[in-house]
Amino acid sequence: SQTIHQWPATLVQPVGSPLSLECTVEGTSNPNLYWYRQAAGRGLQLLFYSVGIGQISSEVPQNLSASRPQDRQFILSSKKLLLSDSGFYLCAWRSGTGVSNEKLFFGSGTQLSVL
Amino acid sequence: RKEVEQDPGPFNVPEGATVAFNCTYSNSASQSFFWYRQDCRKEPKLLMSVYSSGNEDGRFTAQLNRASQYISLLIRDSKLSDSATYLCVVNRNYSYKLIFGSGTRLLVRP
Question: Which residues of B touch A (CB under 8 A)?
Answer without folding.
Answer: 31-32, 34, 41-46, 49, 87, 89, 91-98, 100-103
